[in-house]
Design a protein that fits this description.
25% helix, disordered N terminus, TIM Barrel, alpha/beta, eight-stranded parallel sheet
Length: 472
Amino acid sequence: MRREHFVLLAMSILSLSDPLSSFAQKKPVSLHPQNPHYFLYQGKPVILITSAEHYGAVLNLDFDYVPYLDELRSKGLNLTRTFTGSYVEPQGAFNIAENTLAPASDMFICPWARSNVPGYSNGGNKFDLTRWDASYFSRLRDFVSAAEERGIIVELALFCPFYEDVQWKLSPMNEINNINDVGDLPKNDVYTLDKNGGLLAIQETMVRKIQEELHSFTNVIYEICNEPYFGGVTMEWQHHIATRIVETEKELGVKHLISQNIANDSARIVDPHPAVSLFNFHYASPPVAVMQNYHLNKAIGNNETGFRGQRDSTYRKEGWEFIIAGGALYNNLDYSFTANHETGDFTYPEKQPGGGSTALRLQLGYLKLFINRFDFIRMKPDHTFIAGNLPRGAQSYTLSEPGMQYASYFLHLGDTGISVLLPAGNYQIEWMDPVTGIYVKKEALHHSGGNAKIVSPANNYDIALRIERSKK
């Protein structure tokens, strides 16, 4: 076993065995009261980092989620994202091979029970939107429970827009797939308050049922809707669902976080719903979205990546830059997880729109170990730490508690000297290779204040820097 693999495993075991108060164990994941840009879970500050499957872990009966969750835990990762079943994809959608969100015929399960009327578009009987499928909720609870036992947070995306008619034709909410005479409308009217054709009450009831089933779990975040900026999803509808979540949780006596998906890339958030605590972006590289919205004092996430080739370095870079820029959550869309390959060993074809691998999951685990060495609750983005110009083409991101601790990530720095601004004091300087997780250079610095010149070790692409004031 490689040294870094052993370190990740040991850290995971230790994190599970720490004694915690009964109160801390039962409290759902929340924003950290001292720094709401980050999370608090089981009494500890938390940043959520993962490389996870394509959201079909529950709705796809062919997917065995236990070895999948074991794989995430073994790499030190602590997040998964899944869809409820109100949306499902056809096989071959978006050129994704062995898509977990595209179950085989008769392998699709969702909150609503099947009727005795044949005719569902992907095989089997139609759905009855007035009855629940007990086996679905048993599977959902078991999935969330298995994740909770492994210290993994579940971000549950309640809804998803219908990008094309082919997805709408598979939804149980479509009139052609249910026996309830609702859902005879265009796909872009489904998530509206005034044109939904009776579906709003169905949606509200489904959300409430899910909340009732999951109210006792501590590891759940409710995401209103995946990518609502497509498919006619209105902001009024999103705010309505958020309000209903809050109302139900007041009745249940619990409070889970609510997340909202804002945009691809970046956008400035205007008039946010007060109950939303986590604002998510997709493909947010460079991490402009963090800088644009940091003033909101809420958690900012990048909870879907991909469509930029298959190199591990692409998604390792996106994870590092987003977290070191001040983000709270990073989720790479990992296509190496499929049914029958739940440990993430599927060899996907060249046409696959993204990546994912065991090696990448290890590298993201090193990112999590790196950031957890800091008291990051005391840190914030620092745009003054780098003094002077970096080499041409180089980029950097820094979090700091000035004078105490600094975390920096560099791209294309090379083995060159840089100037950093530090108050007077004694410091320990460490450089980490993000590929191996090994600290490749360490040195002490006695500094009289002002600019300090430090030299990076040789690196081909990226490198991380840790500076901490010495206790002596």
